Amino acid sequence: MGETIMRTSVEDPVRVHRTLIRRVASGAPEFIDITADVIKAVEESGIREGTVLIFSRHTTAAIKINENEPLLLRDMGRFLEEAAPRDGNYRHNDFVIRTANMTEDECPNGHAHCQHLLLGASETIPISEGKPLLGRWQSIFLIELDRPRPREVVVQVQGW
Ligand code: ZN
Fold this sequence. Notes:
This protein has about 160 residues and is of the alpha+beta class. The chain has three helices and eight strands. The chain has a single domain (about 15-160), classed as Sandwich (Jelly Rolls).
C-alpha cells in the first residue's frame, strides 16, 4: 500500500497554520477530548495535504490519542495513578531541599511529571483531503495530570 500526493503547482509554497487551544480541567487525572477543536483548526487552515501536530506546552499535561469511552477513561486514569501515585515519595515535592524552579504557588506534583513521561507532549496526524486521518475509535486528548490550571495546546498544520 502506498500513495503519492503531488502538489498541483510548484509556485504553491508549503504553508504553516498555527492555532492555540485553551482549556482548564475540573480535576486530575482528566481526559479532555479536543478532537473537534483539532478538526476545526485543520479545516480553518485550508490545508488539504500534510500533517497536524498537537503539542502541549506543559510538563504535567499530556497529549495522547485513544478511545473516548467513559469506563476506559476511568481505567486509564487508574493506570496512571498506579504507575505514579499522587501520594508517592518524590524528591521534586520536597520543598525543604529543593531550590530549582520554585514558584510562589509551587505545589507537589512529582506524580504528574512521572505520568507525563509515559504519555508525552505531542501527537502528529496525517491530513488527507482537508481532514485528519483518524481511525474510527481514535480521539485526541489533552490529559491533565496535576490539578486544574490554565493549559495551552498548540495545533500546527503544515502542508499545502
Ligand atoms: Zn513540578
